[in-house]
Design a protein that fits this description.
With 132 residues, the chain is an alpha+beta fold. Helices cover 19% and strands 37% of the residues. The protein has one domain: Roll (Thiol Ester Dehydrase, Chain A), CATH 3.10.129.10. One of its GO terms (cellular component) is cytosol.
Length: 132
Amino acid sequence: MHFLSRRLVMPNDLNFAGSLFGGRILEWIDEEAYIFAACQLDAKSLVTKHIGAISFETSAYQGDVVEFGLGVKAAGRSSLTVTCVVRNKQTKQTICIADDIVFVHIDADTRKPLPHGRTKEELDAIKLETPT
């Protein structure tokens, strides 16, 4: 799992109870997972097909820094399945796990699935930069 990105929880990210709104974290997960998948495949024509199990473990609050850990779970002919773990940067407590996020590589013109040409083994070998 590579922790690649961070966000600061701001007042407009909170729900009525003062903790990070679940919808906001799902928005962030979809965006972060897309960026990860696009970088892994070196392609920008990807669409989110499916987001599987989502488990909320702990809360995050205003001022917390959350970080996103991403990894390739599987690679199909035109799809890439990603797992995302969101955790509190300071405490390392897991906030949320989103498993089985499936992206499909599409032809930009026809919008039809297009083989991406990568295997899981090739993707696992890619060295990623981790922020300090």
